[in-house]
Amino acid sequence: MNNKQVVAIVGSTGDIMQNAVFDLAKKNYDFIFINRSISKTMELVNQVLMINPETNIEMVECDLSNILSVKKAANQLLTIHFDYLILAGAILNDEKIKLELGYSKILTVNFISQYYLAKKLASNKRFKTIVVSSLSYKWNKIDMNDIDFSSRKKNTVIYGNSKRYLTISLMEELDNLVICHPGIVKTKMTTNYHKLVRPFIKFFMTILFPSPKKACRNITLSLDLEPEKNTMFGPKVFNIWGKPKNKQIKDVKDYERDFVKQIANEIYLEIEKS
What average pLDDT score do residues 175-183 get? Predict the structure, then answer.
């Protein structure tokens, strides 16, 4: 790659992130796309090149639900230069199957694998990390007796718990870090709601909340934001509308910080030994 700034993105094919990529392509950034699906990644590559044919793009295959795939991707990324790492991989579903580390798929994808990638790479390279969090991280406190919320039924609550783990763990681990969130946005993940209420949810979200095209600026503007400890960058008005603003994270207890830091480090060491 040339001397342009390079953005490595985990989960670049999601609705919001695709729009973020298009904006960054117009600003002449280069990319490393880190995704599970090569075919979807190629579609995105072609769209980007239509916007800016001078864009340099590399692809790294990484299945966040497969720890061996994550380790392989990390080793590959250690050999490639990049200036920013955006962690935007996310799933919202009711899959409660336990994966190889003993945790659910949603916790593995949304927290464990991305935490491992960020920590592994940051210990060997210098770059700014952008964590794409979610307002749902606010919905529940950490349950030390049920780490991946396996006893909960609502997938939005389970999703929020996984985002809380990722947010807290990297907030405690990294210095050159910006945490952001897009607000409330209609994306493909709304299809995870029950089919009887899904049309109503889609309709009201379209009317009331920003589109992915508008919400993505909360992510793209994060690249130029100076890291500030214990803050989250997102929409100014009720965390939903308006220009993004940095706000203090005030709803994380000390015991949560200590517990998440301990669990994250134990999992990291387990992955390193595997």
Answer: 95
Q: Which residues fall within 8 angstroms of residue 67, CB to CB, at 6 or more apart?
A: 99, 100, 101, 108, 113, 116, 271, 274
Looking at 3.50.50.60, 3.40.50.720, 3.40.50.261, 3.40.190.10, the CATH number of the domain 6-184+215-273 comes to 3.40.50.720
> pLDDT grade, residue 197 (50/70/90)?
very low
Cα distance between residue 47 and residue 150, in whole Å: 39
Query: pTM of this prediction?
Result: 0.91
Q: CB-based contacts of 184: which residues, under 8 Å, 6+ apart?
A: 135, 205, 209, 210, 239, 240
Count of CB atoms situated within 10 Å of the CB of 156: 15
pLDDT of residue 52: 98
Q: What is the pLDDT of residues 18-42, one digit of tens each?
A: 999 999 999 999 999 999 999 999 9
| Cα Rg of the chain (Å, integer) | 18
Q: Between helices 113-122 and 254-273, what is the axis angle to 10°?
A: 80
